[in-house]
Amino acid sequence: MIRLRAASDADGLDVAALLGAVFSEYPGCLFVASEMPELATLSTTFRAATGAFWVAHREVLGVPVLVGCVGYARHGDAVELKKLYVAASERRTGLGGRLVDEVEAAARAHGARSVELWSDTRFETAHRFYERRGYLRTGATRPLHDASGTLEYHFTKALPMEG
User: Residue 110, Cβ neighbours under 10 Å: how many?
Assistant: First the structure.
């Protein structure tokens, strides 16, 4: 069983290990810790951005192993989904959808009208996942000027107004 909980600042090393594993699946995609200083203070950083961050664990031989994560930050009447990563062993199990559901529920609870995200152009499987969930590629791109030479696509999804 996978357990989802709010991240603490102490989860940063495990999140970094997950990101490193995922990045290693893509040629030229390098995990450089200094490019993500927010990992040192995950919970504090996301709370300061009027957001939150969650981690997902599976028990392996009685030890919790981090298998997924996601966060969001508030930007006006939208939230930005950030750092959705799922371990290769847990893909296609529904965990990614569960993590996105957390962000979308939090966005609705805070009155956000949409969720947006940026995704590395190399993450084609993730793009198909987002599109199946109703996210639209806007056509905007941005370079990160990082060690991996990352170029990202922008996606957005309007949230239905409740009530």
Answer: 14
